[in-house]
Amino acid sequence: MAPKGKAGTKGKKQIFEENRETLRFYLRIILGASAVYAVVNLVIFYPAASAWTWLAFVFSSVVYGTSYRSMNSMAKPSFTDDGSLADGGIDLNMEQGMAEHLKDVILLTAMVQVLSCFSLYVWYFWLLAPGRALYLLWVNILGPWFTADSSPAGQEPNEKKQRRQERRQMKRF
């Protein structure tokens, strides 16, 4: 049964601990996926490794680095002069936050990187990330901006139509 009432808020210490665990978890994913890719493509199949293999490894490293550093800076806690926790940082586990998108990028890159051990064509799946970014840009910013009514005069005929409809309904009864 779902709890009734207002959802509880997290304290500074709880946010600090959860952020630390989240960062550890994603660091393990990054290191694991990179290790698998490096061992398979750059050690075992080194003679078959092309410039594209190295370029994909560098690209994934850059994506991992920027995403992880962004998450790390968002979760950076601040302490008072006596060493107690003043702020736990931004909650990395909140829904609809920037950290959620960064975590998605890390997970997508890790999956593509590991699956690309079988074929470099799997890297085309990484195009899902800019596609998702364009979708969010359209839904949240561009779409409402283009479809917004800019003239208040456009509302006046609607009021007139509404009055007419109300009169017609009154005549029927």
Description:
There is one protein chain. This protein is mostly helical and 173 residues long. The chain is built from five helices and two strands. The chain has a two-stranded antiparallel ribbon. It is flat, with a radius of gyration of 26 Å. It starts with 11 loop residues before the first helix and ends with a helix. The model has no long low-confidence stretch (mean pLDDT 84).
Give a brief description.
With 173 residues, this protein is mainly alpha-helical. The chain is built from 5 helices and 2 strands, in the order H-H-E-E-H-H-H.
| H/E element order | HHEEHHH
Spatial separation of the terminal alpha carbons: 48 Å
Structural class: mainly alpha
Number of helices: 5
| Strands ordered across the widest β-sheet | 1-2
Helix coverage percent of residues?
55-70%
Task: Write down how many β-strands occur, each being a DSSP E stretch of 2 or more residues.
Answer: 2
Q: What percent of residues are in strands?
A: under 5%
- Radius of gyration over C-alpha positions, nearest whole angstrom: 26 Å
Largest sheet at a glance? 2 strands, antiparallel
Name the shape in a single word.
flat
Poorly predicted regions are none
Mean pLDDT: 84
Key features of this structure:
single chain, 173 residues, mainly alpha, 2 strands, flat
Fold topology:
Layout: H1 12-44, H2 51-74, E1 78-79, E2 85-87, H3 98-115, H4 128-147, H5 155-172
Antiparallel strand pairs: 1-2
Helix pairs in contact: 1-2, 1-3, 2-3
